[in-house]
Amino acid sequence: MKAYEVGPQTGLDSLTAVTRPTPTAGHGEVVMKVRLVCLNNRDIQVLEGRYGAKKAETRIPVSEGVGEVIEVGAGVSTVAVGDRAVFAHFVNWLDGDFAPTYFTKDLGITDDGWLAEYIKVPGSALVKVPEGLSDEQVAPLASSALTAWNAVVEVGKVKAGDIVLALGTGGVAIWALQIAKAAGAKVIITSSSDDKLELARKLGADITINYRTHPDWEAEVLKATNGAGADIVVETGGYDTQAKSVLAAAANGRIVFVSVAPREGAPAMNIGLVIYKNLILKGIAEGSRAMLQRLLRAIAQHNIQPVIDSTFAFDEAPAAYAHLKSGSHVGKILIKVAE
C-alpha cells in the first residue's frame, strides 16, 4: 500500500512517501480502507519534532479520518465489512474518566495513523458512521471536534441560554461555536482577523471581538454580558490568555484548558478571583469513544456541517501540510485517499 512516514522530524520536508505491506487483521482488530483524512496542528508539530519525544521515523502520521471496513478479525462485534467507521485516536479510552495510560496508545503518535491507503485499528475503538452523514462531516471529528465537544458538553454541561466564550478561530474554537449554538447557547468568539470574525458570525456567533483592536478583550466580554461574564470558556490561547479568561468568566463558570502554548511574560492567573467566583478549571485531552458516539449523534441530529477550507489528493499530502503551516486556511484541510 501507499503510505507516508514522519521521517527524521526536522520539518515538513521530513514527510516521506513509501510503499508498505497492507496490514492484516488479527484477533480483536479491524483493517479499514482509508477514504478521507483530516490534518490538525499536532501533525505539523510531529514533523517538526515538537510534539513530545521524536517518533519512530517509520511512523505513519495523522490522527483522524474516516474509512471503510474491509477485514474484521475474530472477536470483533462493533462493525462489519462494508461499514464506514471512525475512532477517537486514544483508542483504549472507551468510556469513563481519563487516565494518563491512554497516551500510550495514540494512533498517529505511538502507533501508525491514517495517512496511508489502509489502517489497522482495535475493533473495540471503532464507531460506525450513520448512513446519513457524509465523509466530509465525519472525517474531522476525532481531534478538534471531539475536544470541543468534551469542553462544551461533557465538562461545560452547556444548556440553552448559557454564554460560551471561544478563543480564536482555530479548529477547536469553530467546533465549540457550532456545538454550543446547536445546544441553544449564546456564543462569543475572538480573533485578530475581521474576516475570520465575519465567518464566525455567519456560523452563528452572537458577539465577536477583535483582540488586536481590543487587547483588553476580557473587558469587552464583560461589557457584552452586562458584567455577568461567560459560563463556559474554551481556553485555547495558552498561558498568555488564561489570566484574562478568569477575568472574563461568570460566577460558577467552567474554564476548560486545551492549550499550554507558552509566552514570555504571560500574566499570572488570579487564584483569589478563581475562589471568589467559584470557578471550575479543568484540562482535557480530547475524548473517549463514548463521547465520540454522542458527538456523532449530535452531528446527525442537527446536521452540523464542518467548515472545510480545502481538499488535497493523497499524492498532494506535502502541499496539504504546507497549506496548514501557512496559517492562511479557514476551516479544516482534508486529504482524499480513496472514494
Q: What's the helix and strand layout?
A:
Elements lengths: L1 E4 L10 E4 L9 E10 L2 H7 L16 E9 L11 E4 L30 E5 L3 E3 L6 H4 L2 H15 L7 E4 L4 H12 L3 E6 L2 H9 L4 E4 L6 H8 L5 E6 L3 H10 E9 L13 H7 L2 E4 L5 H14 L5 E6 L3 H10 L5 E5 L3
Parallel strand pairs: 8-9, 8-11, 9-10, 11-12, 12-13, 14-15
Antiparallel strand pairs: 1-2, 3-4, 3-6, 3-15, 4-5, 5-7
Helix pairs in contact: 3-4, 3-9, 6-7
Protein name: Zinc-binding dehydrogenase
Pfam families: ADH_N (PF08240), ADH_zinc_N (PF00107)
Helix and strand composition category: alpha/beta
CATH topology term of the largest domain: Quinone Oxidoreductase, Chain A, domain 1
CATH C-level of the largest domain: Alpha Beta
Helix-residue proportion: 25-40%
Question: What amount of the residues lies in strands?
Answer: 15-25%
Low-confidence stretches: none
Helix-strand pattern: EEEHEEEEHHEHEHEHEHEHEHEHE
Q: Rg from C-alpha positions? A: 20 Å
Largest sheet: 7 strands, mixed
| Helix segment tally | 10
Number of strands: 15
Domain Enoyl reductase (ER): 11-335
InterPro entries: ADH-like_C, ADH-like_N, ER, GroES-like_sf, NAD(P)-bd_dom_sf, Zinc_ADH-like
Protein name: Zinc-binding dehydrogenase
Structure write-up:
By secondary structure, the protein is of the alpha/beta class. The chain folds into 2 domains: 2-140 and 306-336, Alpha-Beta Complex (Quinone Oxidoreductase, Chain A, domain 1), CATH 3.90.180.10; 145-283, NAD(P)-binding Rossmann-like Domain (Rossmann fold). It is built from 10 helices and 15 strands. The protein has helices at residues 41-47, 135-138, 141-155, 171-182, 194-202, 217-224, 239-248, 271-277, 289-302, 317-326, and strands at 2-5, 16-19, 29-38, 64-72, 84-87, 118-122, 126-128, 163-166, 186-191, 207-210, 230-235, 249-257, 280-283, 308-313, 332-336. Strands 3, 4, 5, 6, 7, 14 and 15 form a 7-stranded mixed sheet that branches. Helix 10 (317-326) links the parallel strand 14 and strand 15. The model has no long low-confidence stretch (mean pLDDT 95).
